[in-house]
């Protein structure tokens, strides 16, 4: 644990900065009242909690794309699946407080004249089972999909297209009312989570804390993986899969493990996201969301993990600001940003920071060398003068 922190000072510093900011927000919300200069509103708490969920999602993709070399254009599907499981749990907590007062069926099922709860809703009203399903549902889908794809040795752009097709197919399925997930409207109007009012400030603060904790644990686990022998193998697979296969490694199993692990992290991020925003609908399966996710990682910097966190927070903060000013132009700006980063900043924001740091270091070395040279010349001149 301590060796990981010692060898990853930048990542540890970033996680520390995240926790420092989270604590400031919590203090501002809990210990100050509306009207105080240091008061932090619940909307700000929710917004930053959403950013942290996106950051965990970006870290999971960076593990798959940055280190394993698999560009998944459907990674948001696992995020949405985790969110839907959490949404199902929250819907079951409403009970008789719904519009129709039905303790067994959610309002949308009553409206659609459903008479009984579908079998896949059973048990999800219990939090331990819901927590297990949050990890199991994305994990199982990733396992089945990955096993078939990697066993068939599908890779490169073909795999990217298939992953995008997967999330599009799920989007179409969840849009249908017959599937029992709320159709176009999705799941919303949540009341409680673990017996606490979901709209209360204390609940929102707790969700922000849990989001920061999940991001920290997820980052540490990913850092542990990439720093281990397993990490060296997956980087070798990324750089030259055929050589690794020729040595004797079962490449498909390594790919499958990382792909499933990344899907589980994405599902956890989605589960933390839903109670904070208050809704989950099929729009979360949109292929555009997966492409945006790729942009976050590219902007921050691939194969670094902490760069994915920076990219997710920066891009989403910019989205929050600019969609209010230029709502129609934001998607064009996002596409232009991806093109510019791909052409001129292949290592993202952290690459620029490292370049500037290296340039400054070389400049200091050159100035030190010049000063030493001038000191040497002065000493030689003094020695000649004395001899004369």
Tell me what portion of residues adopts beta-strand conformation. Answer: under 5%
Rg on CA atoms, Å: 25 Å
| Overall number of domains | 1
Number of strands: 4
Q: Quickly give the structural class.
A: mainly alpha
Alpha carbon gap, first and last residue: 65 Å
Shape designation: globular
Percent helix: over 70%
Account of the 3D structure:
The chain is mainly α and 388 residues long. It has one domain (2-365). Helix content is 73%, strand content 2%. The protein contains 15 helices and four strands. It has helices spanning 2-7, 9-30, 42-67, 76-92, 107-111, 127-151, 156-175, 201-227, 229-239, 241-247, 251-277, 287-300, 306-325, 330-344, 348-387, and strands spanning 187-188, 192-193, 196-197, 279-280. A two-stranded antiparallel sheet has the order 1-4.
Topology overview:
Blueprint: H1 2-7, H2 9-30, H3 42-67, H4 76-92, H5 107-111, H6 127-151, H7 156-175, E1 187-188, E2 192-193, E3 196-197, H8 201-227, H9 229-239, H10 241-247, H11 251-277, E4 279-280, H12 287-300, H13 306-325, H14 330-344, H15 348-387
Helix pairs in contact: 2-3, 2-8, 3-8, 3-11, 3-12, 3-13, 4-6, 4-11, 6-11, 8-9, 8-11, 9-10, 12-13, 12-14
Properties at a glance:
single chain; 388 residues; mainly alpha; two-stranded antiparallel ribbon; two-stranded antiparallel sheet; 2% strand; globular
What's this entry about, in short?
This protein has 388 residues and is mainly alpha-helical. It has helices at 2-7, 9-30, 42-67, 76-92, 107-111, 127-151, 156-175, 201-227, 229-239, 241-247, 251-277, 287-300, 306-325, 330-344, 348-387; strands spanning 187-188, 192-193, 196-197, 279-280.
